Structure formats: C-alpha cells, structure tokens
C-alpha cells in the first residue's frame, strides 16, 4: 500500500486486508513444521510489505499495524513459542521484528492490551534471548527497534513473569541483555546506526541499569517499573476519564467491543464512534 503524504487514512477494510496479507506472508495462517524455516521468497514477501510502509508518516501506517495487532498478536506469540532460533532463525527473527515495528503501546491500545494480558506470558524472555543470541535483521528494523520492544515489554508486561518477580524478563537474561548493550555501544558500528536506534538502545540500557541499582530516589526493580508504568498510563486519554469530554467524576464505562477506551455517556460514545472510533474498534482474543 503506497500513499503520498496528505492522502486520507486507510479505510478499515484496507487496514484489515493489509494485516491479513502480512499474517499470511509471515505464515501465521499456515505455521511452519518443526525444523523448517522461511524460504528466501517468504522472507522477501514480508520484507517487501514492511518496506512499502517505510516512507509513510505514522498517521498512515499506524492504522495498518493496529489492525494487525488487534487480530494477530496471539498467533505471533504462539509461533514464537513453537519456533527455535537455532533451526528457524529467519521465521523467529521476522516475527520479533514485526513486533518491534508496532507503534508505542502508549498510543496503540491493542499492542498495550496484549502486553498486559496473559497471552504474552514467556514472550519477553524469548525476545530478549534472541536479542542476545543474534537474529537476522530485516532492513526496516534493527537492534534499536528490538531494544525498544524489550523496553516496552519490561514496562507493560507483568513483573512476576520473571524468575525474580522484579521484571517480565528473568534476571539472568536482563543482565545478559545489559552486557550485550554495553558491547554494542562500544563497537565502532554503533556510531553508524541511525540516531533513533541509538536513542532506543540507550533508553533500554538506562532502564536495565536503573532496575539493577536504582536511581537517586531509591526505586529499583519492580517498584521502578510500576512507577514508570503509572506515569505512562497517566498520559493515555480515555483510561481515567471520558475520551471525548475528559469527564472523570461520573461512572465511566469501557467500549464493550474493543475495551480500550472509556466514556461517561452514550452520547459521548456515539460522538466518538462517528468521529472515527468505528474505524479502529476491534474485538480481540486477549
């Protein structure tokens, strides 16, 4: 899908079609058998579809990723649990990087809901371990984007997923990621990464260091993550107040279909539906 800046947003039908095509290209509708990997043609199919979005502004490509996140993230998680990085590196790498290209969970409600759900159990460890071991990079992704994905998982996934109950990733894996980041920053190739990727790597490095030793205020581990999450949740409209009128005194209710935003009245809900919520309202399995 190619659009020039200024063109209208993709329709719901277009977004769903794009998401379905990506799921098909990534073999989510026809999972690989044990020990088999993506062919070169399959890798190229995913690569081409993602690369087509690269020149588009977020307002045009985010609805496409939203449609994918709403329907296919459970299938991505299921595939990652089945695949092995040793014998199915292309497939595993591709799915990790598709996740790494999703919009910020603070802005993308379905990605956020998935990270907060039991469906994400074990996925942070798998993603972090692949970052350490090494994955096959897609051209539109890179180490910074996957570092950013790990940051999101630490921020939004349940902290009791980890073996020390201090973070969604096991303590030993967190330490190994930290070592990997230190080595990455010391390598001469680090300076050749685009600025956004260096910033993403630095952000994860800072988070992991703070989880280990704590900032001057003293918070560390689980307490630090929960404080960060609270700050992020406070920035999301429609969670603690009506998404339309900002009313927070009355009894609020969730959209019964997507369960991602709240309203204070049926009038506000109807207004938001007409204003565009109908395009991005999806029922999910999580």
Automatic annotation (TrEMBL):
Question: Where in this chain does the record put each MYND-type domain?
Answer: 242-281
Cross-referenced Pfam families, in alphabetical order?
zf-MYND
Entry's InterPro entries?
Answer: Znf_MYND (IPR002893)
UniProt superkingdom: Eukaryota
Keyword Zinc tagged: yes
GO MF term set: zinc ion binding
SUPFAM superfamilies in the record, alphabetically? Answer: HIT/MYND zinc finger-like
Among PROSITE patterns, the record links this protein to: ZF_MYND_1 (PS01360), ZF_MYND_2 (PS50865)
Task: Say if the entry is tagged with keyword Zinc.
Answer: yes
Going by the UniProt record, its keywords in alphabetical order are: Metal-binding, Zinc, Zinc-finger
Tell me what this protein is called: MYND-type domain-containing protein
């Amino acid at each position: 899908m190619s659009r020039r800046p200024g063109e209208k947003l993709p329709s719901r039908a277009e977004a769903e079609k794009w998401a379905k095509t990506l799921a098909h290209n990534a073999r989510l509708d026809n999972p690989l058998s044990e020990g088999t990997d993506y062919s070169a043609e399959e890798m190229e199919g995913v690569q081409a579809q993602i690369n087509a979005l690269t020149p588009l502004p977020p307002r045009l490509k985010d609805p496409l990723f939203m449609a994918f996140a709403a329907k296919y993230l459970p299938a991505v998680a299921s595939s990652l649990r089945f695949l092995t990085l040793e014998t199915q590196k292309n497939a595993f790498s591709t799915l990790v990087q598709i996740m790494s290209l999703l919009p910020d969970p603070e802005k993308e409600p379905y990605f956020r809901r998935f990270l907060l759900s039991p469906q994400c159990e074990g996925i942070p460890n798998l993603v972090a371990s692949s970052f350490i071991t090494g994955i096959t990079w897609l051209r539109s992704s890179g180490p910074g984007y996957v570092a950013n994905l790990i940051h999101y998982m630490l921020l939004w996934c349940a902290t009791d997923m980890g073996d020390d109950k201090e973070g969604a990733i096991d303590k030993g894996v967190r330490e190994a990621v930290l070592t990997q980041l230190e080595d990455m920053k010391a390598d001469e190739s680090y300076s050749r990464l685009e600025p956004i990727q260096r910033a993403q790597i630095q952000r994860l490095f800072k988070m992991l260091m703070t989880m280990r030793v704590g900032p001057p205020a003293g918070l560390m581990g689980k307490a630090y993550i929960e404080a960060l999450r609270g700050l992020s949740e406070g920035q999301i409209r429609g969670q603690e107040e009506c998404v339309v009128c900002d009313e927070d005194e009355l009894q609020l209710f969730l959209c019964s279909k997507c369960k991602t935003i709240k309203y204070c009245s049926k009038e506000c809900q109807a207004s938001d539906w007409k204003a565009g919520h109908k395009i991005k309202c999806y029922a999910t399995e999580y």
